[in-house]
Specification:
Distance between the termini of chain B: 37 Å
Strand content of chain A: over 45%
Number of strands of chain B: 11
Shape of chain A: globular
Order of helices and strands of chain A: EEEEEEEEEEE
Oligomer: heterodimer
Number of helices of chain A: 0
Helix content of chain A: under 10%
Order of helices and strands of chain B: EEEEEEEEEEE
Largest sheet of chain B: 6 strands, mixed
Radius of gyration of chain A: 13 Å
Distance between the termini of chain A: 37 Å
Helix content of chain B: under 10%
Largest sheet of chain A: 7 strands, mixed
Largest interface: A-B, 23 and 24 residues
Chain lengths: ~110, ~110
């Protein structure tokens, strides 16, 4: 099965600072990749998904962007963080033969 | 209307109880359905897939009604370790699978 590497586990950043979260996938090729955000006590909100290198679909207008420079690498970025960007960020992967999602262990981002 | 809606929680039940979770989805073109379990501040983990014919795994039973766009999860003989948030998940193929999660229902099982 797939393994999703996501780091860091915890991040504290000041308002206005940049952000880069990286996710890499092992054990599959050409996966569909996803970034989700979960606010405290809330459900998972789909932010971006990608079906291939360089292809990004955005689900909600926001302060964040995503990129997929390699088949198994997915990056979430921001030029200037806002307080409202705080949350638990999860990267997920699905291979083309399997409808199930595999998650990374998540990054808890606190913007202060 | 949200794409995937679940029962508001939390559910507080004693050990041994049977508990049912409900979920509805709005996109009739949705293709596959799952229940995930999430422990506090952890990543969600797949609990089981959901089919129209029903799916049973030990104490857990999941059911899909496509006509009503309704998904259910039944947990029998609840254990303390079942305490978690249960997430209803719906896939729609829009040129790549778009996976939408419900907000989740929190379950507390008490001794």
């Amino acid at each position: 099965s797939q393994t999703i590497h996501q780091w860091p586990a915890t991040l504290v950043q000041p308002v206005g600072s940049p952000l880069s979260l990286e996710c890499t996938v092992e054990g599959t090729s050409n996966p569909n990749l996803y970034w989700y955000r979960q606010a405290a006590g809330r459900g998972l909100q789909l932010l971006f998904y990608s079906v291939g290198i360089g292809q990004i679909s955005s689900e909600v207008p926001q302060n964040l962007s995503a990129s997929r420079p390699q088949d198994r690498q997915f990056i979430l970025s921001s030029k200037k963080l806002l307080l409202s960007d705080s949350g638990f960020y999860l990267c997920a992967s699905r291979d083309i033969t399997n409808e199930k999602l595999f998650f990374g262990s998540g990054t808890q981002l606190s913007v202060l | 209307r949200k794409e995937v809606e679940q029962d508001p929680g939390p559910f507080n039940v004693p050990e041994g109880a049977t508990v049912a979770f409900n979920c509805t989805y709005s996109n009739s073109a949705s293709q596959s359905f799952f229940w995930y379990r999430q422990d506090c501040r952890k990543e969600p983990k797949l609990l089981m897939s959901v089919y129209s014919s029903g799916n049973e795994d030990g104490r857990f039973t999941a059911q899909l009604n496509r006509a009503s766009q309704y998904i259910s999860l039944l947990i029998r003989d609840s254990k303390l370790s079942d305490s978690a948030t249960y997430l209803c998940v719906v896939n729609t193929n829009t040129g790549g699978f778009k996976t939408i999660f419900g907000a989740g229902t929190r379950l507390f099982v008490k001794a």
